[in-house]
Design brief:
By secondary structure, the chain is of the alpha/beta class. The protein contains nine helices and ten strands. It has a ten-stranded mixed beta sheet with strand order 1-2-3-4-6-5-7-8-9-10, with helices on both faces.
Length: 363
């Protein structure tokens, strides 16, 4: 499942206030029409699974004089396919980019464990490289909105906190962050979040990081989304399986370590919008109720821990939303886009919300 070989070189201009971005080669994306991809080589995998790379996706080359750009990051068992989200931003003058992280989506290679890492902070390498590329393409004066869904919401939040401290010249170009159902704590029974269980996870992760957690696989979320079941969305089930990829001890330990950092308080340093469902429902079988709740994470945790992201955080519960609020049924989806448009207007980057429809598709 490796990315295709590069085809046509494109040169990006370096920013005056940041190191020169890597020279990338853009080629048509085989999954989405009107999109292009570029491979970002990352060298040998620190988790010993061979050479790794990330994949940057863009919705065509940015228009000269674009208002800004979006850098979107997926969650676990996910990759970028949410074209209406890109259309929403593009209609409002933003260039749109998404990043399939190492061993995820378009970046997954043969004999690699999907979405496997033992340290979320390793993702900052491709996140920072992707940010430099985007800045080099959109030019001076353009500002960046960072988006993250689920695990991507946790990962990008930790990265922005690090960027604020370690690379303030890059962080100064970030306009805001949009977190779509971020994974801020471990769902399930309270005992799973206790110190003894955390130590067991850490001990197993140290000796058998790729050991799969014993848990029942649920198809309910996949069935609610995919057009082949009860949903309306088309995506590649090899990259986003109906029941999800197996969760390993090494990965869950990395997530818990990141969540503990957040629980002690971080500062993403920019206005932040957290969109989430108004309710969670945990079930392994599909029913119509699945279409109107987050059946992956506990929204109470998002409400509890969002205040630990910084001092400019707005949390908007979306009635009837799914785990990915932008893949919700139409009424909830429209509410999510409306909340996003209002927030963009308030932070000063969207003077004319009428440019886009409430469903995110340009007129």
């Amino acid at each position: 499942m490796s990315s295709p070989d590069d085809a046509a070189a494109v040169t990006t201009a370096p920013e005056a206030d940041a190191p020169a971005p890597p020279a990338l080669t853009w080629q048509p994306d085989r999954y989405l029409d009107r999109y292009e991809i570029a491979t970002i080589p990352l060298g040998p995998d620190p988790d010993d699974e061979g050479p790794i790379s990330a994949t940057l996706i863009r919705r065509t080359a940015p228009d000269p004089g674009c208002r800004g750009a979006v850098l979107h990051v997926h969650g676990f068992t996910d990759y970028f396919f949410q074209q209406p989200l890109a259309d929403f931003f593009h209609a409002r003058g933003y260039a749109f980019y998404a990043l399939d992280l190492r061993k995820c989506g378009r970046s997954l290679r043969e004999n690699q464990t999907p979405h496997f890492t033992t340290d979320l902070s390793r993702y900052r390498e491709e996140l920072t490289l992707a940010l430099r590329v985007v800045l080099g393409e959109v030019g001076a004066g353009a500002r960046i909105i960072v988006g993250g869904h689920s695990t991507g919401g946790l990962t990008t939040s930790l990265w922005l906190d690090e960027l604020r401290r370690d690379a303030p010249e890059l962080h100064s170009r970030i306009e805001g962050a949009v977190l779509n159902s971020p994974w801020l704590d471990l769902q399930g029974d309270a005992v799973l979040r206790t110190y003894p269980v955390t130590m067991v996870i850490k001990a197993v992760a140290k000796v058998k990081p790729k050991q799969v957690l014993p848990q029942e696989i649920s198809m309910a979320y996949g069935h609610s989304l995919h057009e082949s079941a009860h949903g309306e969305w088309s995506y590649d089930l090899n990259l986003k399986p109906m029941g999800g990829f197996p969760v390993t001890f090494g990965f869950i330990d990395a997530v818990r370590s990141g969540q503990r950092r957040l629980h002690h308080g971080i500062d993403v340093g920019v206005p932040t919008l957290v969109l989430r469902s108004n309710a969670s429902l945990f079930t392994h079988a599909y029913s119509p109720e699945v279409d109107a709740a987050d059946i992956v994470l506990d929204v109470r945790h998002m409400a509890q821990w969002s205040a630990h992201l910084g001092d400019r955080v707005r949390v908007v519960p979306i009635t009837g939303a799914r785990h990915d609020v932008f893949l919700s049924a139409k009424p909830a989806r429209e509410s999510a886009y409306r909340a996003l448009g209002e927030w963009l207007a308030e932070i000063g980057r969207d003077p004319d919300p009428a440019h886009a429809t409430s469903t995110g598709v340009a007129q």
